[in-house]
Amino acid sequence: MNNQCPICSKNCLLSNLQCEKGQKYFQQDLTNKLIKCGHILTHKTGKKRSQENILEILLKHKEISQRELQEILDIEAGSMSEIIAKLEQREYIKRYKDERDKRRYIISLTKKGYEKITNKKTNDEDMFDMLSTEEQIQLNDMLNTLLKEWYIRHMKYQK
Predict the structure, then answer these.
(1) Alpha-carbon distance 68 to 19, whole Å?
(2) Angle, vertex CA 60, rays to CA 56 and CA 66, nearest 5
(3) Are residues 136 and 157 in the same domain?
(4) 133 falls within a domain
């Protein structure tokens, strides 16, 4: 990793920036990296999380109706259908009509879905396992400092 400022010809170290352009560049770079981290966290813990939730529920229930699954997750029918279609396309689940009630769909895990959900790391393990315990503590301390100050500066009118 290059620790020199790429902006000017002084070749300053990032730890000792000599010009205002370099300082602004470094702050913008930090902001951009935090935005990218936010995007990854949202993707990992948000949108895809519903798919993981469905696989976890199916692991416990073996099979369940689409309506029951929708009620457990408290999501709209259209969203449910979209998520189910994606999981079906990836061959993590199978969906078939209920023999007793042809209006109902039953959903169950496939072998591939079972392997996916039983072999996955938790979000927390997967997000931070590349950092040592000491680095995780340092990151936690830095994030606490940022959040505390940002809350004071930017959220003081929101309670």
Answers:
(1) 61
(2) 75
(3) yes
(4) yes
Bridge partner list, 93: 109
- 144 found inside a domain: yes
- Residue 88 is which amino acid? E
Strands (E), the chain: 63-65, 93-97, 105-109
What angle in degrees, to the nearest 10, is found between the helix axes of 66-73 and 49-61? 120
CB count within 10 Å of CB 54 equals 27
pLDDT tens digits along 71-130: 998 889 898 999 999 999 999 999 999 899 888 999 999 999 999 888 876 666 778 888
Q: Are residue 64 and residue 103 in the same domain, yes or no?
A: yes
Q: Tell me which DSSP letter residue 56 carries.
A: H
Number of domains in the chain: 2
pLDDT tens for each residue of 43-81: 776 556 688 889 999 999 989 999 999 999 888 989 899
